[in-house]
Amino acid sequence: MEIKAYSRITADKMVVNGSTVYSSSDGENINLTDLYRHLGIDYPKFFKMDNLCKAGFLGAETIIRDAGMDTVTPKKDCDIVLFNSTSSLDDDIAYNNTIEDDANYFPSPSVFVYTLANIVTGEIAIRNKIMGESSFYVLKEFSSSIIYSVVKETAQETSANAVLCGWADFLNNTPDVLLMLLQRTGDGKIQFTAENINKLYR
User: Fold this and answer.
1) Which of 26, 96, 120, 148 has minimal CB crowding within 10 Å?
2) How far apart are CA 31 and CA 175, in angstroms?
């Protein structure tokens, strides 16, 4: 398979297919809502998502649109395979803050619903009508070799023609996202290899 399109979101910028499409101008970490508005996306449900879902959603939205797949619905032969190293820790911390003090106990269902890392795959699938297999793996750290081997095996097992895959993490107000849209195109795009995954991430 080949990398048809990719997006990278870090603390201060977003890069799509090698071009910076947004950067933080004030020296602060990137604001995902500002990025959403800058990209001109119209999807009100975005504002109800947690930060991990917002980051993954924005990364997916740009490359699906760039590859012209946003007009293809439903996407029955597209899989989603994502990875990170913190799972839903950003939400776990927020939820724990609502229950740790007996005198100020206010458990929030709106936070609790996102204390599973794989919710981001669901949000992306719903938005884009992706109907293939989806999975989310939690690794000790970023590993291009593991990402490559797991995605390759998944694509072989499902015979998917497209796979949305990569790294989607968010912690301490910092997104760390590398999403790639793979297709069996043979049109001279970037080859899907562990080395190229590492180059795009670094």
Assistant:
1) 26
2) 10
Residues 6+ apart with CB under 8 A from 101: none
With a CB cutoff of 8 Å and minimum separation 6, the contacts of 115 are 88, 91, 92, 95
Domains parsed from the chain with CATH numbers = 2-201 (3.40.47.10)
What's the first-to-final CA gap in the chain, in angstroms?
21
Q: Residues for the chain: how many in total?
A: 202
What is the DSSP code string of 174-191? Answer: EEEEEEEEEE---SS-EE
Q: pLDDT tens for residues 156-183?
A: 999 899 999 999 999 999 999 999 999 9
With CA atoms as reference, report the closest residue to 176 among 137, 196, 152, 202: 202
